[in-house]
Amino acid sequence: MNASLKRLQTDYIDIFQLHGFDAKAPVEETLFTLDDLVHAGKIRYTSVSNFSGWHLQKSLDVTDRYGYPRHVAKQTYYSLIGRDHEWELMPLGLEAGIGAVVWSPLGWRRLTGKIRRGAKLPETSRLHKTADFGLPVQDELVFRVVDALDVIAEETGKTVPQIALNWLLQRPTVATVLIGARNEEQLRQNLGAVDWNLTPEQISRLDEASYQRPAYPYWHQQGFSERNPFPAWSMPE
Length: 237
Hints:
Blueprint: H1 2-8, E1 13-18, H2 27-39, E2 43-49, H3 53-66, E3 71-77, H4 89-96, E4 99-103, H5 127-130, H6 139-156, H7 160-169, E5 174-177, H8 184-191, H9 200-209, H10 218-221
Parallel strand pairs: 1-2, 2-3, 3-4, 4-5
Helix pairs in contact: 6-9
């Protein structure tokens, strides 16, 4: 840790991220080490990335048992074409008070506005290199979501990615999104996703366009939504 801080030319790290769950190391050992680093002033807060719900809950149980610092955030994949985060991690985040730091909010660049029904993938698209790295997405889902984004872009005067990012920023638990702008112009375009809000009706249309039936037991739990409500979505009528 001391060598890392020296290379970074800083005395401490604001948020130290566990990039993945280590099943070969006892959770107690990992959290004990993080507790030492916090008390030594070398890190201020801890966070996790790409954890399952039970991974995060187990960590929270251990921190509560021993009085270790609690994780304050979880870095997670979440987008209009990848809403698995809503099934388990979002309810857990609400219950435990943990914010979501969203990576790949435009779904591996599928929601930039350059990919549309009947059009070829642009030669400059990063998807030529990155499409196989991420969650497989059916083309029809992408086209359905982009069609809805196009309509709302006409209504609002905003760009497709700005609308996709604004939708995310209004979701429960989402604290921030991580954008991967290639240049200053893209950065400025992405920053145009803030300081305004989609209407509830527009959000509803995007929810419907991006809906996919969840895995078990979540689709079954939708039948008991009056007792076990989902925080961000419901089955379309």
